[in-house]
Fold:
Amino acid sequence: MTTMTAAQLRAQTAPMEQVPDPEVPERPRPPRSYPAAYKLRILEEYERLDKAAEGALLRREGLYTSLISEWRKQRDKGALQAFQQRRGRPPVDPLARENARLQRENARLREQLERARKVIEVQGELSALLDRLANGSATRDASEPTS
Structure:
C-alpha cells in the first residue's frame, strides 16, 4: 500500500472541487449573424483548402458546412454583393439640403407677408371707418343748434 502526502492528495482532489456554475442564462443567445465581407472571405479561404484544412477552418471559426453551402448559394445569386451596399438613407447632397431649407424658408416668409398684407388691409378699413365716424359726428355736432 502506498502512502500519499498531503500535497499529492490535494493535487488529485483539486479538480473535483471545481463545481460548474449551475446558473442557466435568462434567455438563449440570439442566432449569429455574419457580415457579407466575412462570408466572402471565409468562402474564398474554404475553397482554396483541402478536406482536412476545411474541417480545421470550420472548427476554428465555429461554422458548419451547411452555412458554407448557404453562403455559396447567396454568392451565386449575387445576394452577398447586394448586402455589401450601405444600408439606410442615401447620403444627401449638401446643395439639395440647402435648396430644400431655402424653399421652406421662402414659403414661411410668403405666408408671413400675406398675413401682414391682410393686417394692413384691415387697419386701412378700420382707419377709414373711424374717419367716417369722426367726420359724421363732427358734422352732426355742427348742424345741431346750441341751446
